[in-house]
Automatic annotation (TrEMBL):
Keywords: Hydrolase, Metal-binding, Zinc. GO terms for molecular function: hydrolase activity, acting on ester bonds; metal ion binding. Its cofactor is Zn(2+). Gene3D superfamilies: Zn peptidases (3.40.630.10). Pfam families: AstE_AspA_cat (PF24827). It comes from the Bacteria. Residues 33-201 form the Succinylglutamate desuccinylase/Aspartoacylase catalytic domain. The keyword Metal-binding applies. This is Succinylglutamate desuccinylase/aspartoacylase family protein.
Length: 354
């Protein structure tokens, strides 16, 4: 039977607090990989929330039938602080109102899975830092750590620390991922990097990589929330847990070999707006484009003959994502393009986006 606890995060001002439901499923045997899955660290990204909602009954059934061989922890909505952050009726959810920091940045990077040194809820630090410490305490020690997110308008893709590849082809295949982005140096302290940090000293050929999995899963775009997609994503997550031996289910076929290759983060082109204005897109996620091809037009001066500014592909490749809003300021991200060579324009270390 599912074990539910409610973690309480003390507020920064008297009389306030946040509650974080945590669901645990206990294994009947030992030795199988344990798993931790969370969604909505960016609180307005809901495809992962509904996928976990559909996955939970499947985990409960496996536990009840004695087919759960590794412990599984599920945090269906990992950020109760951001869940309530609305501005003029629009849900924000990505950046803290307190610090203006991305909620998926600045996680502590530990050398081991020992979390005893992380601040507790009585520590004199902001609630968002205590929440991040709480999430790490829940996650570290699990063999499989999946952080479910989504993009604006997007294909289904995953981020993977380089040493985990190609051992995580089974996850990409299970989820039907259309791209894999591999990074090596830093993701600016994202949750994924914090979950990976204790294993940084392992050599790339260490056999432990085959048992472990750490990833950020981007479940398409923010508007891709439907019963059909929730069910498909839940089945994909379940298939992965079966493939890794966390769940025993003879009725689930092993995932097919994922056909693609991981794209190094250096090869991702962040196509940015040269001017502010209204956006007309000429390509969508999933399109393959050639170098110099028109991918967007920004109308900076409507009604004027010279009011349009063309945006072209800096190299040939696959359009992975595009902006959901159709207005932009100068310098803002319009698209991600996966190229075959390192980007000549995107050179900063760390995460692709703020």
């Amino acid at each position: 039977m599912v074990e539910k606890t409610v973690e309480v995060v003390r507020g920064d001002t008297p009389g306030t607090e946040w509650r974080l439901p945590v669901l645990r499923f206990r294994a009947t045997g030992g030795g199988a990989p344990s798993a931790y899955l969370q969604a909505a660290l960016h609180a307005n990204e809901l495809p992962g929330v509904v996928a976990l909602h559909r996955l939970v009954p499947m985990l409960a059934e496996a536990e009840r039938d004695g087919r759960l061989l590794g412990d599984v922890t599920v945090v269906p909505h990992a950020n109760p602080i951001a869940a309530g952050e609305h501005l003029f009726s629009e849900h924000m959810g990505r950046f803290s109102f307190h610090s203006r920091t991305n909620y998926n940045r600045d996680f502590p990077l530990l050398d081991t899975t020992d979390t005893s040194g992380l601040p507790g809820d009585d520590a004199p630090v902001a609630a968002e830092k205590r929440l991040k410490a709480r999430l790490l305490k829940l996650a570290l020690g699990a063999d499989l750590v999946l952080d479910l997110h989504c993009d604006d308008e997007s294909l289904n893709y995953i981020y993977v620390p380089a040493p985990f590849w190609p051992h995580m082809r089974d996850l990409a295949a299970s989820l039907g991922s259309e791209a894999v982005l591999a990074w090596r140096d830093s993701s600016d302290g994202a949750f994924e990097e914090a979950a990976y940090a204790p294993y940084r000293a392992l050599p790339d050929d260490d056999p432990d990589w085959r048992r472990l999995a750490v990833t950020t899963v981007e479940l398409r775009g923010r508007a891709d929330v439907s019963p059909e997609l929730a069910e498909a994503d839940a089945l994909g997550l379940y298939r992965f847990l079966v493939a890794r031996g966390t769940i025993r289910d003879e009725g689930v076929e092993p995932p097919a070999e994922w056909p693609g290759e991981a794209t190094p983060l250096d090869n991702v082109e962040m196509i940015r707006a040269p001017v502010g204005g209204a956006i007309l897109f000429h390509a969508r996620p999933g399109d393959r484009v050639e170098e110099g091809q028109l991918v967007a037009t920004v109308i900076a001066s409507p009604g004027e003959a010279e009011g349009e500014v063309a945006v072209t592909a800096p190299q040939a490749g696959l359009i992975l994502t595009r902006r959901s809003q159709r207005s932009t300021r100068v310098g803002e991200d319009l698209m991600k393009l996966l190229g075959s060579r390192p980007s000549a324009t995107v050179k900063k270390p760390g995460a692709l986006e703020s």
